[in-house]
DNA sequence: AATCGTACCTGGCTGC
DNA sequence: TGCAGCCAGGTACGAT
């Protein structure tokens, strides 16, 4: 489901809902959601008594900064967090709730995921950089660690098509299938153009488009295409501003040519065949 | 080493 | 109505 703007919205919602709460117990209904070498009851025991001190985000990963450790959560395609005050707990948990965090005040946070792709992992301590470094995650696009010179260097070093390269989170984190199409449209670059064939001005336009689109989408609370909701149950608004994603057959807002949809490495890919250049 | 296909899952929609 | 087939905001892993 979510890309950087949606994950940021979920994180901000959780920041309002669960900060300062202490984990009393955790019920796990689909064990594969939890990535651990431990037996699940031992894993839960590590978390019991820890307090949520802060919420953070790295790329599309949500971080629960706990008293001692860090809980890392990736929503993948359909993960959601549902918060229930103690006096509004569901009689029966929803069908797709796979993990229930029960707090000492009786409130609960449920991890809900129709496709069960999401993952939750506990990292020792608070220094999470080795974990993300091992995954090869690139810089945060909305921070000053994202630099044009590095970005250009990364593009020049790959003959892959630009879209799959941007999706792999190594040059920059946070783009997924919606925003990569939007960014390439704004920068007027064909999704199949080899990264090392981008001109200097295209590279710069792409760099700037990434920052602009993601910042606007964060501002709008993300995009709700199918089922996305933040943890307060609110939909995003940026879907109204999408120029090409889901718009195949409609006229290009820039030149009027009919937008098309193709498949690039199994992902639906939307673009304008006349103003995005190979 | 880098890049690609496939697996992981369920449900909604389309078309026969 | 029923059902097969395709599609969906992502990543990990094995094959090439």
Counted beta strands: 11
Instruction: Give the CATH architecture of the largest domain.
Output: Alpha-Beta Barrel
CATH topology of the largest domain: N-terminal domain of MutM-like DNA repair proteins
Radius of gyration, whole Å: 20 Å
Query: What count of domains describes the coordinates?
Result: 2
Global shape? globular
Largest sheet: 5 strands, mixed
Question: What is the class of the largest domain in the CATH system?
Answer: Alpha Beta
Instruction: Name the helix and strand elements from N-terminus to C-terminus, one letter apiece.
Output: HEEHEEEEEEEHHHHHEE
The largest sheet has its strands arranged as 2-9-5-4-3
Report the mean per-residue pLDDT as an integer: 95
| Separation of the first and last Cα atoms | 29 Å
Number of helical regions: 7
| CATH superfamily membership of the largest domain | MutM-like, N-terminal
Topology:
Blueprint: H1 4-17, E1 23-28, E2 34-35, H2 40-47, E3 52-58, E4 61-66, E5 70-74, E6 80-84, E7 97-103, E8 108-112, E9 119-123, H3 129-134, H4 148-156, H5 162-167, H6 177-186, H7 200-219, E10 260-264, E11 267-271
The structure holds a DNA duplex (16 and 16 nucleotides).
Describe this structure as you would to a colleague.
The two termini are 29 Å apart. Helix content is 26%, strand content 21%. Helix 6 (177-186) crosses helix 7 (200-219). It is α+β, with helices and mostly antiparallel strands and 278 residues long. The longest helix has 20 residues, at 200-219. It has a five-stranded mixed β-sheet, with helices on one face. The chain has two domains: 4-135, N-terminal domain of MutM-like DNA repair proteins (Alpha-Beta Barrel), CATH 3.20.190.10; 148-271, Helicase, Ruva Protein, domain 3 (Orthogonal Bundle), CATH 1.10.8.50. The protein binds a DNA duplex (16 and 16 nucleotides) through residues 1-3, 5-7, 32, 60, 74-78, 96, 113-119, 135, 158-160, 164, 167-169, 176-179, 222-228, 245, 265-266, 268. It comes from Ignavigranum ruoffiae. The active site is at 2 (schiff-base intermediate with dna), 3 (proton donor), 60 (proton donor), 267 (proton donor). Monomer. One of its GO terms (molecular function) is double-stranded DNA binding.
């Amino acid at each position: 489901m979510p890309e950087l703007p949606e994950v940021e919205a979920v994180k901000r919602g959780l920041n309002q809902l669960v900060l300062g709460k202490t984990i009393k117990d955790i019920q796990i209904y689909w064990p594969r959601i939890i990535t651990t070498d431990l037996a699940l009851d031992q894993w839960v025991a590590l978390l019991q008594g820890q307090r949520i001190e802060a919420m953070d985000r790295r790329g599309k990963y949500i971080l629960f900064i706990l008293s001692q450790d860090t809980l890392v959560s990736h929503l993948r395609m359909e993960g959601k967090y549902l918060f229930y005050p103690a006096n509004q707990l569901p009689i029966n948990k929803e069908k797709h709730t796979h993990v229930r965090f029960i707090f000492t005040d009786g409130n609960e946070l449920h991890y809900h995921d129709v496709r069960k792709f999401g993952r939750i992992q506990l990292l020792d301590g608070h220094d999470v950089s080795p974990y993300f470094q091992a995954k090869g995650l690139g810089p945060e696009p909305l921070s000053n660690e994202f630099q044009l010179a590095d970005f250009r260097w990364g593009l020049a070093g790959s003959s892959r098509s630009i879209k799959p390269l941007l999706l792999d989170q190594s040059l920059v984190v946070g783009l997924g299938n919606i925003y990569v199409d939007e960014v390439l449209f704004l920068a007027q670059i064909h999704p199949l153009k080899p990264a090392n064939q981008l001109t200097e001005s295209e590279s710069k336009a792409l760099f700037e488009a990434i920052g602009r689109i993601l910042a606007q989408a964060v501002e709008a609370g993300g995009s709700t295409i199918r089922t996305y909701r933040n943890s307060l149950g609110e939909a995003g608004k940026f879907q109204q501003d999408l120029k090409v994603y889901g718009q195949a057959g409609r006229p290009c807002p820039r030149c009027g040519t009919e937008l098309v949809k193709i498949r690039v490495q199994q992902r639906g890919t939307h673009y304008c065949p006349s103003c995005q250049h190979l």
